[in-house]
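Q: Two folds, back to back.
A: First:
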Amino acid sequence: MKNRKRLYTVIISIIVLIGFLATSLIGYFVARTSISQRLQQEMLPLTSDNIYSEIQRDLLHPLVISSLMANDVFVFDWVNDGEKEPEKMESYLSQIQKKYNTITAFFVSNKTKNYYHPSGVLKQVSEDNKADAWYFQAKNSNQPYQINIDRDTAEPSRLSIFVNYRVIDKKGNFIGVIGVGLSLLVVEELIENYQQRYGREIYFIDRQGQVMLQSSKYSKELHIQNKEGLDKVFLRILTTPSSSFSFDTINGSTIYLNSRLVPEFDWYLIVEQVNDPATEKVENALIINILVSSAISLVVLFILHLASRGYQGRLETMATKDKLTGATNRQMFDSFFTQAVARSKRRNESLSVVLIDIDHFKQVNDNYGHQYGDYVLTTVAGIMNQHIREEDVLCRWGGEEFLLMLQDCSKNEAIRVVNNLREAIAIHHFDYTGKKLQITVSAGVAEYQQSEAMNQLIARADISLYQAKNDGRNCVR
């Protein structure tokens, strides 16, 4: 009757706790999903839209200037007059540059292929020169203008935004390309502004994924294939005009990313955010809910305990197995050892114990994390269980140490068994989440002597284990 009441108490408490936990977890995951979707579908695209709108606004002024230049009667008359007195065109471009505060102004004649600049005729464009491809693309375009980012012919070390406007005379004949240049600093300042305002990483990449513009806080990996996690979505970014998604990195962070093509530059604008502060608040709320749920469950358990008319409140939860490895725990080994000694005396049988230690286990934890360490412990215990008999006892002695008790087994036979076990572990490939290691163990064997205490026997096995480690590990002594 007492056991039945105790069982009912436990069942009711579990139901209450599960109900609270389920409610908390459902609320947590719903809120987290909602926040993630809002960040992906609204907040990052909105940042991207704002930046794009400001870029278009900044381009509007040079577009208007270039349009006025392309329709200026002076340009038509000067070209029709045979491009005499080049200094007139140079003076005209210089006035445009000063009046509108542009970094450059230019005109390329279709007839002479001369590149006119405020400082003079800089060169003649040629289809054989890759640097002049922009001119022939504008010439063959169906659009009135093209925008490209290129090195300034007057200052090759400087990247600038150029508005290349087609000049068409009254008869519809193409007579050249004219326009102005805009400093990339305008866009760089825009990136810096948004970076500081929202704490998001903002940069531009070209069609090959090469980073072309970034903030001063941008990480040093200048190719998105080199950024952790982004290699997985590299092709998706470069093959779609606009996309939003998230992915997890190796270190457990979540990166939210929005990309969109900026046709004026033929570049992709990338907006990234690592984790979301709102998610952290939801996680804190979940922890609080779980603590409250646990507290309420304990209250329910206490009330049921009082209702049971003073039944023993202290729970005797003496577990016989180690939770991680499934091996016998240290508390239970005393009982098994006492039984084994009595059996060996009664049947005049040998009894041996083996202390086994995983070599360099601390390095496994330090280099690969405790999850990998837990995986190694569990796997080693599984291999050992496969190589021992049903009557033998495997105990997790502590940390990475195991104690093996072999009944009806002499010292020499124990050494043979443990060597087989050691070799099986050494040839096993430990593969966890793509990280592969080879693990070895060292072991110390001791045979029970008449009337010997358990701690004395284990101490002798420990001395043998110490000798195995001094002898280079991966051996039995």
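A: Second:
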Amino acid sequence: MINKRFFKTKDEVEVTFELPEEQVDSSAVLVADFSDWQPIAMRRTGKGKTFRFKTRLPKDSQFEFRYLIDDQRWVNDPQADLYRPNGFGSDNGLVSTYE
């Protein structure tokens, strides 16, 4: 799941990436072009039973990403704005920060 929060006075968007806990055995990371494709650990939340990562991204841009679950399984977010072929025989999700 992807949640976006647009700010009226800032040129950035708060983006929250979430995965349901039942999809993950032990670990989930977000891998994205905004982090130079370096894995970012997602944290397990206590209340919502999800894995979550929150960041702020520049407005009016697009970013590619995927989730890596349990160090072995690649997953796309079903709520991605678009999908783009990644050159490895599958697609990356795309999150847009255009309002």
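Q: And?
A: The chain has one domain: 2-96.
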